[in-house]
Design a protein that fits this description.
This protein has two helices and five strands; from the N terminus they run αβββαββ. By secondary structure, the protein is mainly alpha-helical. It is rod-shaped and about 135 Å long.
């Protein structure tokens, strides 16, 4: 009888162990599923954040482009603004390293001064590095005039003065 009870106890223990193993497997599957769901949720949140930042960056880039274009347009009309102190006929548009070269008196056929101008229409009123270098050279008197001539026979340029 003790053997019979021992066998029944072992069978019950084996069944309990089997149920417990099955329960652990289900629990593990659920945890794995929860971990997977959590990972997917985190990925979706990160993706949404990246998409949001990308949309913001695109909008900022478009706005910067619009500002640059409108600034360039405004700079072209600057000589015709009422507060512009020079004669628009004396202004020569350059729009490269600086915006205007004003040949004061050009319209009267008597140039008395040459003024380099940079127009700023945006928030920033700072000169670029190149513009600062030009300003510094002008202020230091490191400006000169050169006359070049193309020899039509040789096809070479010659510095005359």
């Amino acid at each position: 009888m003790i053997t019979y009870l021992l066998i029944v106890a072992l069978v019950l223990f084996a069944i309990t162990l089997w149920y417990f193993t099955m329960y652990l497997a289900q629990l593990s599957a659920r945890c794995g599923s929860l971990e997977l769901k959590l990972e997917v949720y985190r990925y979706e949140q990160e993706l949404a954040q990246i998409e949001s930042e990308e949309a913001l960056a695109r909008e900022m880039a478009l706005q910067n482009q619009r500002n640059r274009i409108s600034g360039k347009i405004l700079e072209q009309y600057c000589p015709f603004a009422p507060e512009y102190t020079y004669n628009p006929d004396d202004s020569v548009a350059v729009f490269d390293a600086f915006d205007y070269l004003n040949l004061v008196g050009k319209s009267a056929n008597k140039i008395v001064e040459i003024v380099f101008q940079e127009m700023k229409s945006g928030v920033s009123k700072r000169l670029t590095s190149r513009q600062r270098q030009i300003r510094d050279c002008i202020q230091a008197g490191k400006v000169r005039f050169e006359l070049w001539w193309l020899d039509g026979i040789t096809g070479k340029w010659h510095l005359i003065e």
